[in-house]
Amino acid sequence: MSGDIFGAITKMLDPLKTKMRLMVSKAVVALIDDGKKIQQMQLLALAGEVLADVERYQQFGFTSVPLPGAEAIVAFIAGDREHGIVLGVEDRRYRPTGLTNGQACFYDILSKIKLTADGKALHDVPVKTEIKSAEVVLGAGVVLEKILNGETFQVTYNSHSHLSFGVPTTSPILASTVADLSQAVKAAKLQA
After folding, report:
1. By CB count within 10 A, which of 16, 74, 104, 140 is most buried?
2. List of residues 6+ apart from 21 with CB closer than 8 A
3. Residues ≥6 apart with Cβ < 8 Å to 140
4. What is the rounded CA–CA span in Å between residue 30 and residue 16?
5. What are the sequence ranges of the domains in the chain?
6. Which class is 2-90 in CATH?
7. Mind listing the pLDDT tens digit for each residue in 139-159?
8. How far apart are CA 34 and CA 178, in angstroms?
């Protein structure tokens, strides 16, 4: 009799046990639709299981479009395999390695921007860096260097005027102004 009760309870709990086992899964990214308000993915999961239109949740202020073949972690609401959400995507083919404690890195398949634990931002951009802004403000000690027609063109700001704790500093600018730099770059481009 007790065996019958145990068997009945086990039989009743089997669907729940299966749903719990299938609540979180690894998958491979097949397709990405970044044209909607929330990114959607097609994923390949368990033994040929295709998951379509799975929403990918991303951190506010940062978005990316992973490549097909990247790996995803998918959670299924209430164990329902028809209602999955992508919690994270990783692509071990391109992820930079060797970071130390306290570092962070933004990357894509070509470029890396590493934020170091000592406050530096290291840009490894092999093609071109483009800044589009109404105004670019450079701080103290900034060195701008540009190779133009085989010559090195350099402008150094070792000190400048600004507010320090509400009091204006009057250190002279030891090199050209940003306007002078802009004119020199334009002139160099005209000569090229």
Report:
1. 74
2. none
3. 157, 158, 159, 160, 162
4. 29
5. 2-90, 94-128, 131-191
6. mainly beta
7. 766 666 655 444 554 454 444
8. 39
